[in-house]
Design brief:
The complex is a heterodimer of chains A (about 600) and B (about 575).
Chain A: H1 3-10, H2 18-30, H3 38-59, H4 62-65, E1 71-72, H5 77-83, E2 108-109, H6 144-148, H7 160-171, H8 188-207, H9 210-226, H10 232-242, H11 255-273, H12 281-288, H13 303-316, H14 326-333, E3 350-356, E4 359-365, H15 387-401, H16 407-413, H17 415-431, H18 435-457, H19 459-479, H20 481-490, H21 501-516, E5 529-533, H22 535-545, H23 549-556, H24 562-577, H25 582-589
Antiparallel strand pairs in A: 1-2, 3-4, 4-5
Helix pairs in contact in A: 1-3, 2-3, 7-8, 8-9, 8-10, 9-10, 9-11, 10-11, 12-13, 15-18, 16-17, 17-18, 18-19, 19-20, 19-21, 19-24, 20-24, 22-24, 23-24
Chain B: E1 2-7, E2 11-18, E3 25-28, E4 38-39, E5 41-44, E6 49-52, H1 54-58, E7 67-69, E8 80-83, E9 86-89, H2 90-109, E10 115-120, H3 126-138, E11 142-148, H4 149-158, E12 165-173, E13 178-186, E14 189-198, H5 203-218, H6 223-226, H7 229-247, E15 252-259, E16 262-269, H8 270-295, E17 305-308, H9 315-325, H10 338-350, E18 360-362, E19 364-365, E20 369-376, E21 382-391, E22 395-396, E23 399-406, E24 414-421, E25 431-439, E26 449-456, E27 462-468, E28 473-478, H11 482-489, H12 491-500, E29 502-503, H13 509-524, H14 527-546, H15 549-568
Parallel strand pairs in B: 1-10, 6-29, 10-11, 12-17, 14-18
Antiparallel strand pairs in B: 1-2, 2-3, 2-4, 5-6, 5-7, 8-9, 12-13, 13-14, 15-16, 19-22, 20-21, 20-24, 23-26, 24-25, 26-27, 27-28
The chains are: A mainly alpha (about 600), B alpha+beta (about 575).
């Protein structure tokens, strides 16, 4: 409602006089039977609120309306000292800054005009949020310490705000600016200090008024969520004081709290499962033990339990999967295989689909390992190859790259890839695999690298690779939906599939191009990405594939028949390739 | 005649609006014992006669006490209590209390009241409200309106001086429920900005905490365990209540019970009690924060914190309040009387009695109302049982809001609109209020939509209108749940059943209460003292039998004086 309409509804001339607005509202209200005129009542209230808002704006000159410059990060102590003289005017300060933003709050600390003095009366740095029209911060007529009955404690040395700053600095150190990066866990001494500061912050929260308590609640939830998993050891005590769990599952659950509650449950599950008596304890130990090249699955661990643990964790506590070793998970998830260089995509592919207001979100999660996990080491195999062996390898090289590339050429351009060719040959010979099987295996590995590089490089390369990939999927589909799925899931082309020569030709050309640009190195870690797929694009997939809406959605969520999933993936790649918005096109193609 | 009733967990009170020369005022009506508060207790004597109030409360710890208290806590549930040979629901028991209050007014004014305004905790859900309404009907009263307790208290507080008030907060901690309301007053408008609460937190919980804390050291030999558990609990809770009262004035209190002619006693200090109550105190903060958040009001800008409810007398609670708000609370209204007085004022407003015509109250709906929906989940499956809010909590009422929903299945033939109240994202955590089946033309999923409109009026009645824009069909549902319909059918039968109970004559209430008290004291004291009580009691009973008013009066005074003396200074 515009102010003009509001005055009309209230039946008075524009006025900054709050009492007049209220009087007009009261008169109108009394003249009305609200139960018989619900809409009129709503309108009247709206008018009153708009008028009061306007009046308040008139009352407060802009200078006082001005927002305080939020400090990025934390105010250094020296600055606080310098600001001290201003603090004379008011004895209160904002104990905790407001959390801004939603899911990942960009947190700023607002100290406001009233900076703390270090010699404030100990133990009760009180907090007070800005009163709406407050010009000077109100002085409470009562002496808080008397009311609180607090004795000066060790807080006398360090006021509450200092604990907050210290906690903030410990959890979100300056050295890490990039939000993308995962913070390292707290070290022993850091954890002890953080817990100490947290205790002080919580104690302060308990002794201040509800509004300040609420602010501290929001602030703390924000930094704990933002610094997760670094903040893990602090979660239990904070959640207990603020009763975060009682908010769980509520319509009004705050995003940061929802995030933390999910993790809290995960933490508890982790604690429980570490008890040797827990039925899934063995499975847990198995999956958390780091695996290396050549590791085997644990001997005394039951498959069913590992599956139950993995399924349960993925369903109920997805964040707990961070504790698992991705290689170990891969050992259990796929049939053990001696493929060298296979580990990269190992924790499988998960397509997650969310339908919100007609916008689909696709999420492909590649191995969600920690940043510390490096790609698998390329085996150094130094067996002198016989001439015959060299010939087989050379043939494989030309199958993949065409006649102009020799093994030596490959060695000079991309030595690790050449080593991979040799190593796999050694294995193939040991297994007694056919030459053709060897060639197709190395072809798969090169395809995998092309794909992985394209996902990282994006741009034209991504388009090229995905275009070929769609054709490969189409070729696989001709053999059968299961063949198509096998290629989609494992990036292994079943031998029965006949790829049209034209497609192979294009693939070879691209492979050579990438090799020349030395773009076929070991695959890098891919961060799980999300992309939203516009409804119109989904519509295209539906028309193209002729599969009804519901089944398309299912297929995108990784459900439904193989045929559907295959067709929908191809359809989606096609539709995305022809999509007009470059940014969206790229985003979608990089998660397919 | 229209009366206002505060139907409390521990005590109930009745008040009426009396128009007068300078505007009139709300007045509490004393009961047969001359007291303004009637304990919400019902007892059944061995001969089947029912007792209500102080006399019933005295019988609570007796061997064949058959007394129910705090039944408001299971209002709106199927739970029953057995008293003597009969079973009673919370509604029945509340109806008996309401009848007693009704009779008190009849005796006081000479006219039998027929209509009432009854107060309920703001955080009572729809089911609990309906049960309260039915209790009123069972007691033969037409319930003109249910009003929220903190709103009633605010009304009483505001009318003390009729001053303009910036937002103030009503902190209402009763025997079994806790409410917080933020209220503003101006130009004769009483505007509730937000309400929040915990309908499972009250003074009773402090008694339980105290009893649990001392039981071990009070009774190391497990004497109490030999009693039936309800009776052991009754004795402990009575003792806890006494100790709690003493602690409100001093630093320590004696916690004593008499079991099997043995007196068990221990001392409890304030700091011990505070430690025990810590968890409960913490639960007080949540609703306060929620109400402030919802109304976007800063605690510092509240003009007052008004205390209502007997449990706010506890120093431990006051201390917590002082800390929560950083100031001393306002105790200018009587914590036990304000709600009933407010109800009477509301009654006066409804009856448009003189001196009140300018007041208008606007309240909020403290719960979220919505319907059940299903959604495609992140895993591509269909997730059912989700709650989709239509009216958000703390929306001013009356209000009318609508939401648009569509079919999820191909060729879906009907949509079942299930209506819920609560704050949980999944409907299983909310209160089911009713449902309506809406036939729709079969079409592909998502192509048929319905418009669901909720209209919530100021007396708390919810009306649901569903429209199918495709066909223009309209459906309407007044929320009356299954239970309600069933209850309406046998309401008459139940009313008659309650009326058929033998009620103890009102004129004898005083004597009955004294007799029950003497019985309790007899069980509590030992040795010579007990013998003296026995003697005096027999004399009193003999006097009652003689039916000689003077003899009865003398004996009753003698007995009451003896008991007063013994209870004030226990001889042990």
């Amino acid at each position: 409602m515009t102010p003009t309409q509001a005055w009309k509804v209230l039946g008075i001339a524009k006025t900054p006089d709050v009492a007049a607005i209220r009087r007009a509202y009261a008169e109108k209200l009394r003249a009305m039977d609200v139960d018989k005129n619900v809409a009129g009542y709503a309108r009247l209230r709206e008018a009153r609120d708009a008028a009061l808002r306007w009046a308040r704006m008139q009352a407060a000159p802009p200078a006082q309306e001005e927002e305080f410059d939020p400090f990025a990060g934390v105010t250094p102590a020296e600055e606080v000292e310098q600001a001290a003289p201003e603090a004379e005017q008011s004895s209160w300060l904002y104990a905790a800054p407001a959390v801004q933003g939603e899911v990942d709050p960009s947190l700023t600390r607002k100290l406001g005009e009233a900076s703390p003095k270090l010699d404030v009366t100990p133990g009760f740095v009180a907090a007070q949020a800005p009163a709406e029209q407050a010009i000077a911060v109100k002085r409470d007529p009562f002496e808080r310490p008397v009311l609180l009955g607090l004795e000066p404690t060790s807080d006398a040395v360090m006021p509450a705000w200092a604990h907050e700053q210290a906690l903030y600095r410990l959890l979100l150190p300056d050295t890490v600016d990039d939000d993308e990066e995962t913070l390292p866990p707290l070290e022993g001494w850091e954890e002890a200090m953080a817990l100490g500061h947290l205790k002080a912050v919580l104690r302060n929260a308990e002794s201040v008024s509800v509004t300040a308590f609420d602010e501290i609640d929001n602030w703390l939830a924000g930094i704990l969520a933002r610094s997760w998993p670094r903040s893990a050891p602090l979660l239990e005590p904070a959640a207990a004081l603020f009763g975060w769990e009682s908010e769980r599952g509520q319509v009004s659950e705050r995003p940061a709290i929802a995030f933390l509650n999910a993790r809290l449950r995960g933490l508890r599950f982790r604690e429980k499962v570490q008890d040797p008596k827990h039925p899934l304890h063995k499975a847990w130990n198995e999956l958390t033990t780091p695996a290396q090249q050549g590791s085997r699955r644990g001997w005394f661990v039951k498959r069913a339990q590992v599956d139950q643990l993995l399924d349960g964790v993925r369903k109920n506590f997805p964040e707990v999967e961070h504790y698992f070793d991705p290689w170990r998970v891969a050992l259990w998830e796929k049939k053990a295989s001696s493929d060298v260089g296979q580990g990269w995509f190992s924790s499988g592919r998960l397509i997650v689909l969310a339908v919100i207001f007609g916008i689909q979100i696709l999420r492909v999660v590649f191995s969600s390992n920690d940043s510390s996990t490096e790609p698998p080491p390329v085996p150094e195999i130094s067996i002198s190859q016989s001439a015959q062996e060299k010939e087989i390898i050379s043939r494989a090289v030309s199958t993949v790259f065409g006649p102009e590339i020799t093994f030596d050429g490959l060695q000079s351009l991309q030595p690790d890839l050449a080593a991979l060719f040799s190593a796999n040959r050694t294995i193939a010979r040991a297994d007694g695999s056919s030459d053709a099987a060897y060639a197709s295996k190395v072809q798969d590995l090169v395809r995998e690298r092309m794909y992985a590089t394209a996902l990282v490089e994006k741009g034209g390369l991504l388009t090229d690779v995905q275009r070929i990939r769609a054709d490969l999927l189409r070729a696989a589909r001709k053999t059968g939906a299961d063949a198509c799925m096998a290629f989609l899931r494992n990036r292994r082309m079943p031998p029965a599939v006949v790829v049209p020569p034209t497609v192979l030709e294009r693939e070879r050309a691209l492979a050579v191009k990438m090799l020349d640009a030395r773009q076929l190195g070991p695959p890098q870690r891919i961060n799980p990405g999300t992309a939203s797929v516009p409804g119109e694009l989904i519509g295209k997939v539906i028309t193209e594939t002729g599969i009804p809406d519901k089944r398309v959605r299912q297929a995108m969520g990784g459900k439904g028949s193989d045929a559907d999933q295959c067709a929908v993936t191809i359809g989606l790649i096609d539709a995305a390739l022809g999509w007009k918005v470059p940014k969206e096109r790229e985003a979608i193609l990089s998660v397919l | 005649m229209l009366i206002g009733i505060d139907l409390g967990t521990t005590n109930s009170a009745v008040a009426m609006w009396q128009a007068g020369e300078n505007g009139g005022e709300a007045k509490l009506v004393p009961n047969a014992l001359g007291a303004l508060l009637t304990p919400s207790a019902v007892s059944v004597l061995p001969d089947g006669t029912t007792l209500v109030g102080a006399a019933a409360l005295e019988r609570m710890g007796l061997k064949d006490g058959a007394t129910a208290t705090s039944f408001k806590r299971f209002m709106g549930t199927d739970r029953k209590v057995r008293l003597g040979k009969k079973e009673f629901s919370a509604e029945d028991l509340s109806a008996l209390v309401l009848m007693a209050l009704r009779d008190d007014v009849a005796a006081h004014t000479g006219t039998r009241p027929t209509e009432a305004v009854i107060t309920v905790p703001a955080y009572f859900n729809d089911r609990q409200r309906k049960a309260t309404r039915r209790a009123g009907e069972l007691a033969g009263l037409t319930v003109r309106r249910l009003i929220n307790e903190p709103t009633a208290a605010a009304l009483a507080f505001g009318l003390q001086d009729k001053a303009e008030r910036e937002p103030f907060l009503v902190f209402d901690l009763g025997g079994g429920t806790f409410d917080v309301s933020i209220v503003e007053m101006f130009e004769g408008i009483v505007e509730v900005r937000a309400s929040a609460g915990d309908n499972r937190l009250g003074g009773d919980d402090f008694n339980t905490a105290l009893a649990t804390a001392v039981r071990g050291r009070l009774d190391p030999d497990g004497l109490l365990a030999k009693l039936e558990e309800p009776r052991a609990q009754a004795l402990l809770l009575q003792a806890a209540e006494r100790a709690k009262r003493t602690l409100s004035e001093g630093q320590e209190a004696e916690f004593a019970v008499t079991v099997a002619d043995q007196r068990l006693s221990t001392t409890i200090t304030t700091s011990e009690f505070e430690a025990q109550a810590e968890g409960l105190i913490r639960r007080l903060r949540d609703p306060v924060v929620r109400a402030l958040r919802d109304s976007q009001i800063d605690a510092a800008s509240l003009s007052e914190v008004v205390l209502v409810g007997g449990a706010t007398r506890m120093p431990v609670v006051r201390k917590a309040i002082t800390r929560l708000f950083g100031r001393f609370p306002n105790s200018s209204v009587h914590p036990d009387h304000a709600v009933a007085l407010g109800a009477a004022i509301q009654g006066g407003l409804i009856a448009r009695d003189g001196g009140l015509e300018e007041i208008r109250i606007t309240d909020v709906c403290p719960f979220t109302l919505g319907i059940e929906t299903a959604e495609h989940s992140a895993r591509g499956t269909v997730q059912q049982g989700l709650f989709s809010p239509i009216i958000e909590r703390n929306t001013p009422v009356p209000v009318s809001r609508s939401g648009l929903y569509s079919t999820i299945g191909d060729n879906q033939k009907q949509i079942e609109v299930k209506i819920y109240q609560g704050e949980a994202r999944e409907v299983s955590g909310n209160v089911h209020l009713g449902q309506i089946k809406v036939p729709v033309p079969p079409r592909p999923a998502g192509e048929v939509s319905i418009d669901v409109r909720f209209s919530y009026d100021s007396s708390g009645l919810l009306e649901v209108d569903v429209e199918v824009p495709l066909t223009g069909a309209k459906h309407n549902l007044l929320i009356i749940d299954e239970e309600d319909r069933k209850a309406a059918k046998d309401l008459d039968a139940r009313r008659q059943a309650l009326a058929a109970l033998k009620h103890h004559p009102r004129e004898e209430a005083g004597n009955q209460a004294l007799l029950a008290r003497a019985e309790r004291c007899y069980e509590e004291f030992l040795g010579d003292v007990r013998a003296v009580i026995g003697d005096r009691t027999r004399m009193f009973v003999a006097a009652l039998d003689s039916q000689d008013p003077r003899r009865i009066a003398d004996a009753s005074v003698a007995l009451a004086e003896l008991l007063d003396m013994l209870e004030a200074n226990p001889p042990l």
